[in-house]
Amino acid sequence: MIQKVTLRDKFELFHDHWHPRIVGQVNDMHVKLTRLKGEFLWHTHDEEDEMFLVVEGQLIIRLRDGEVALGPGEFIVIPHGVEHQPVAMEEVLVMLFEPVGTLNTGNVENERTVAQLDWI
Amino acid sequence: MIQKVTLRDKFELFHDHWHPRIVGQVNDMHVKLTRLKGEFLWHTHDEEDEMFLVVEGQLIIRLRDGEVALGPGEFIVIPHGVEHQPVAMEEVLVMLFEPVGTLNTGNVENERTVAQLDWI
């Protein structure tokens, strides 16, 4: 039978940062969970919109024209082509919705790129 | 500048049941909010997977081979083609994630079908 997903239980399965895990798929979109802490790099996604829903903590998304602060129960959709930099002063737990195949670092590939994502 | 969405604030904008509102779009998927109370009808979606994330309350999804009970912070993805019936003994606040154009009643069209969804 189809199983539900309990976000808290899934988050307990990993504790590293900036390394998303896949927890669901809705047609050609992945639902991912990630823990964030510190500053990520500025990047864009050429074709993929990206939704960040904060589950716990405070997330800042820096944009070229300002920044947005999000707490639990708040989300933002970054349209493709829009430069952004996620920043977490303290640890943040985030659920992501984005197309299958979306790279965490978008148009940048470096040591922070996670090329192969695992299902948990 | 891109705006965030606060789920609680959006839920306060409507109080009817079984009438989803659109609060975001991620590529060709809509993010919707809905209040549910009582029994919905059995239906399937021919092509669209459907994700239910419970924000508040308790949601039961009946399937032909059993049922799944979900509380806040839990989600389920109903794959296309799978018959399901959402049931809320008390009011439930739910975030939906599904392809643009998904009908709330799927393969059934009746007085509970909401053909035109509004953005809020």
Structure description:
Two copies of one chain form a homodimer. Chain A is built from one helix and eight strands; from the N terminus they run βαβββββββ. With 120 residues, the first copy, chain A, is mainly beta. Chain A has one domain (7-99): Jelly Rolls, CATH 2.60.120. In chain A, strands 2, 3, 4, 5, 6, 7 and 8 form a seven-stranded antiparallel β-sheet that branches. The model of chain A has no long low-confidence stretch (mean pLDDT 96). Chains A and B meet through strand 1, strand 2, strand 4, strand 6 and strand 7 of A and strand 1, strand 2, strand 4, strand 6 and strand 7 of B. Strand 1 (5-6) of chain A pairs antiparallel with strand 7 of chain B. Chains A, B: Pfam families: Cupin_2 (PF07883). Chains A, B: Residues 39-91 form the Cupin type-2 domain. Chains A, B: This is Cupin domain-containing protein.
